[in-house]
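Researcher: Structure for this, please.
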Amino acid sequence: MIPKGEVLRMEKKEYAKRVENASPGSPLLKNCLNAFAVGGLICTLGEGLFTLYSHFGAPEKEAAAWVCITLIFLTALLTGIGVFDKIAKHAGAGTMVPITGFANSMAAPSVEYQTEGRVLGTAVKMFTIAGPVIVYGCSAASLYGMIYYFFFRG
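Model: Predicted structure, token format:
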């Protein structure tokens, strides 16, 4: 026990060694393979849905839009019932395929804070993670659009 008023001083090397000893190891290859497999399955599902919607006569752009809608719906549904978190725990970054990752970032906080009410819980917390992405994405798109308009419109 440290006497009251004394400060524990430790060299950086000793601290780093203690942190390394206390930190559990990570099976890097296994994690990468899981992420690759699950990300590939999500993309394969998207391609399958695109083929299905095209088979039923949807034009290419419309089929692509329906794929986005379906993947967002499935991700939000699986997040809401607690399944997506289990998949993400196994797959790690593989679930962060842009559309499913964004849908999960919107749905997860709203599910987590629903006990605080519809407005101050679900609605406010829904944009906790996704809000900055939307703001900076729109800002970057506007800046790119202005640069394109003023310099390359010819």
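Researcher: Any notable elements?
Model: Residues 59-154 form one domain. The mean pLDDT is 86.
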